[in-house]
Amino acid sequence: MEIKKKTIFSGIQPSGTLTLGNYLGALKNFTELQDEYNCYYCIVDMHTLTVRQDPEKLRERSYSLLALYLACGLDPDKNVLFVQSHVPCHAELSWILGCYTYMGELQRMTQFKDKSARHQDNINGGLFTYPVLMAADILLYQADMVPIGADQKQHLELARNLAERFNNIYGETFIVPEPFIRGGSARIMSLQEPSKKMSKSDANVNNFILLTDTRDDIVKKFKKAVTDSGSEVRYDENEKPGISNLMNIYGAVKNLTAAGVEKEFEGLRYGDFKKAVGEAVADVLAPVQDRYREFSEDRAFLDKVLKRNSEIAFEAASKTLKDVYEKVGFIVY
Ligand code: TRP
After folding, report:
1. Containing domain of residue 264, as a range?
2. What b/e sequence results for 242-252 when a residue is b if at least 16 CB atoms lie within 10 Å of its CB, and e otherwise?
């Protein structure tokens, strides 16, 4: 008997180069899901317009994100890799869902509060309704699961509430998506301030490793990473947040548990450990970087992938949208 594959949906903004955190926390694991699940990976270009973008850079970044997905090993025949603006259903469903979302729900969103504090000169409507578009992304594809970081939990909760609200009024229409949090996928923190998540938008470049950083840069940044008092390589998130973060990184790269990392570095100094982490990361990224360069140069191939996959995405999304249009009372042919 064939069991129906579950659907996974994930969106990534093409708003900058990806970091080691994106790779170890998400992308590396995505390749392990491609046979078991029906996976949609969406480059959410529409979401990025909530803050001002340079048009040429935005276009480049969308291509480069696709190249990076492919370089990380995502097979474009097994995963639907596509660009949000290529499938008009996202904007369409977003309008409908917006009419079922309360102002209060959007006002409570911590990301809206943070972003409007940071971009006070441009607190636009899109920034406010951003989570509704995200809900549309997810619900259009009847996703069962959404891999997300902690910062997106509140947004996913809204998507779940909207799905339930709509289903209660009109009958079963949307699958109510679950967060997909995988054991073993490491949460990678800043190298200089290990209490904060590693983020590409950080002002200090020593805080993050970009997937496109050179080997030299990678090794240097790890050399500069903050450590803690004491001298042993021992896992303790409270007492040794810096070392624990480096251990998580090393463990994720080498497929080792914390105990395994402790054992490997027993009796060695922080300096030796940091050097080993830097080299291990550079080694694991090298083949990804080579493939990334190759894919980036083959624009015709990238366009082919996007065109074909946007058709597949459109077919799935328009089925849901048609059902919604019928249920709310539009004339549908
Ligand atoms: N808001 C997400 C982020 O900034 C990106 C995103 C958009 C997303 N649509 C999505 C993530 C749908 C998961 C599912 O990280």
Report:
1. 205-293
2. bbbbbbbbbbb
